[in-house]
Amino acid sequence: QTRSSVSLWTLFCALVCRLGAMLVQQPHDVVVVAGQPVTLPCAITGYHGMVLWVKDGLALGVNRDLSGYPRYDVIGDHSKGEYHLLIQRTELADDGSFECQGIQAAIRSRPARLTVLVPPDDPVIIGAPVVSLRAGDPLNLTCHADNAKPAASIIWIRNGEVLNGAMYSKTLLRDGQRESTVSTLYISPSNIESGQRITCRASNKAAPNGKEATVTIDIQHLPLVNLSVEPQPILEGNLVKFHCSAKANPPVTHYRWAKGSSMIRDVLGDSYEVVVDHSFFTEPVSCEVTNALGSTNISRNVDVYFGPRLAAEPQSLQVDLGSDAVFNCAWTGNPSLTIVWMKRGHGVVLSNENTLTLKAVKQEDAGKYVCRAVVPRVGVGEKEVTLTVNGPPTISSTQTQQALYGEKGQIKCFIRSTPPPDRIAWSWKETVLESGTSGRYTVETVSTEEGVISTLTMSNIVPADFQTIYNCTAWNSFGSDTEIIRLKEQGGRFVCWRVHVNMESLFYPCLGVIKTRVTPHLECRTRPLRLCVFRLIPQGSVRRDLEQ
Predict the structure, then answer these.
(1) DSSP state string for 227-245
(2) Which CATH entry fits the domain spanning 396-489: 2.30.30.100, 3.40.50.720, 2.60.40.10, 1.20.1250.20?
(3) Domain locations along the chain
(4) Does 421 sit behind a cis peptide bond, omega within 30 degrees of 0 on the bond before it?
(5) 255, 287 in Cβ contact below 8 A?
(6) Vertex 279: Cα angle to 273 and 284 (nearest 5)
(7) What is the pLDDT of residue 449?
(8) Cβ contact 379:333 at 8 Å
(9) Which long-range contacts (CB under 8 A, 24 or more apart) does 486-489 make?
(10) Where would you tag: which of 230, 320, 375, 483 has the fewest CB atoms within 10 A of its CB?
(11) Is 108 exposed, middle or buried (0-12, 13-18, 19+ CB in 10 A)?
(12) What's the pLDDT score for residue 19?
């Protein structure tokens, strides 16, 4: 009976509590960002019983007593039946389904879904704030945004433009709600510049404006080197300055200079001053620049202007008659030079090449040849060589030579001969004389640079000497040559002397010397007509001379 009484009383109270009770305000689905407060409304009019908030089927507390949830409060005007649930600083744990229930009136609200959003942590670019890579390598950037609900979306931005082509992956965390997002961006070497800033922006509904992380790209490379030289043009003997300008990342650590294969050890900086000569034209100057990644070497041939310098010296030649003679002569010079071959004493250009070829040489080809090089506006150089032609002797003498009657006379025979003559002989009438003295005749032979001179000397020239034919003959292993030489009286013959002595006119034969005890007055005529001068000599004698 007692139990029956209690049950009836409870039913009675429920009926009483329900009579006139109405749910006028109930919670609705709401989305909130973690950390923000949220209020779930609930108002029951005409009800004076217990009000219960339930989350995911579990009661949070009765009426306004939610002591087990310090961030939860039931607020509102109790007299109006307001039992609003205030959640301060929402957390991910608050995410769920909430109901407001009037227990005695058997009233319950519809379930209201509270969704708690969690913004991603600040994104992190691996390697930031500066990512270094070697020139020529591609760029791979990885950015992760963790602990987001929902998972963060990641975009990459450079110079205000979104970069496409990134790859993404998501990982669900242990709480089953939050996720981490990883994005990897690949950029080809041709699309990267040092100093560029690339931004990773992560966003979700909790952080619609996104959170950013930025990285600066540092492209490291070997030194980029340029080697210059001033002033221009470069003349041999001038002071010039070589400058080695380099861009390097990491910075340059040291410089090293060389000329050709030789190190320049006393120059350590980026400049090198030197007085240049022609060797700089063929021995390049090089500058080696080093940084932490390695070294770059650049070399430069210097366009030095210099006069002709002999590169291959021509050699004198001795060839047989009829053979070819080939001279080689090489010069260097800058700017380009002109080569001229000429025979000494002749103005004819024989060749403008390094090589001079004389075909089937003759005796007259023998002599000195000049190889001349001309560098316009810079200088001239020349080298002389001798061509010696092996062949029979060649005699070149005046065929008619002169002598004074009664005086000592000479006739000369000039002989060019390679090899030198083995024998030289003078012959006239029945006489042959090679050397030494025979009667009035003496033969002497003298060697000179040009050849051999053989001289036939005759003492006390007589008229018959002017009628004689003289032969000069020379021999060597290749043959012989002969020259016929005649002797001519110098100035003609005297035909008479008129001598005035003591006022008497006397005729004397043209003997040349008159002896008298007095000073004579003399007249002389010659054929052809010329004046004669008579000079007094010791013992009262006079000697005649032609007045030229």
Answers:
(1) EEEESSSEETT-EEEEEEE
(2) 2.60.40.10
(3) 2-117, 124-219, 306-391, 396-489, 493-546
(4) no
(5) yes
(6) 70
(7) 83
(8) yes
(9) 486/399, 486/400, 486/401, 487/400, 487/401, 487/402, 487/403, 487/409, 487/411, 487/458, 487/461, 488/400, 488/401, 488/402, 488/403, 489/402, 489/403, 489/404, 489/405, 489/461
(10) 230
(11) middle
(12) 56
| Residue 505, both tokens | 């006119």
pLDDT of residue 187: 95
Do domains 124-219 and 306-391 share one topology? The answer is: yes
Strand partners, 219: 133
CB 114 within 8 A of CB 85: no
Q: How many angstroms separate the Cα of 262 from the Cα of each of 209, 232, 243, 297?
A: 64, 25, 18, 14
Element (H, E) at 307: strand 304-312
Angle 154-157-162 (CA atoms, 0-180°, nearest 5)? Answer: 85
Residues of the chain with pLDDT under 50: 1-18, 492-548
The C-alpha R_g of the chain, in whole angstroms, comes to: 65
Strand stretches in 397-527, DSSP E: 400-403, 409-418, 423-428, 431-433, 436-438, 441-447, 452-458, 469-476, 479-489, 493-501, 504-508, 513-515, 521-527
**Cα separation of 113 and 541, whole Å?**
169
Phi, psi of 9 (to 5 degrees): -60, -40
To which residue do tokens 């450079």 refer? 158
* Average pLDDT over all residues of the chain: 86
Measured CA to CA, the distance from residue 316 to residue 301 in angstroms comes to 35
Q: 306-391, which class in CATH?
A: mainly beta
pLDDT for res 506: 43
State which fold the 2-117 domain adopts: Immunoglobulin-like (2.60.40)
∠ at Cα 306 (301, 309), nearest 5°? 105
What is the three-class DSSP state of 538?
helix
For residue 315, count CB atoms less than 10 angstroms from its CB and return exposed for 0-12, middle for 13-18, buried for 19 or more.
exposed
| pLDDT score recorded for residue 303 | 86
Phi, psi of 530 (to 5 degrees): -145, 155
Distance, CA of 502 to CA of 519 (rounded, Å):
9
Identify whether the C-beta of residue 384 lies closer than 8 Å to the C-beta of residue 393. no
Q: How far apart are CA 173 and CA 92, in angstroms?
A: 13
Strands (E), 26-151: 30-33, 38-40, 43-45, 51-55, 58-62, 72-75, 84-87, 96-102, 107-108, 112-117, 124-125, 130-134, 139-148
pLDDT in tens, 175-210: 999 999 999 999 999 999 999 999 999 999 999 999
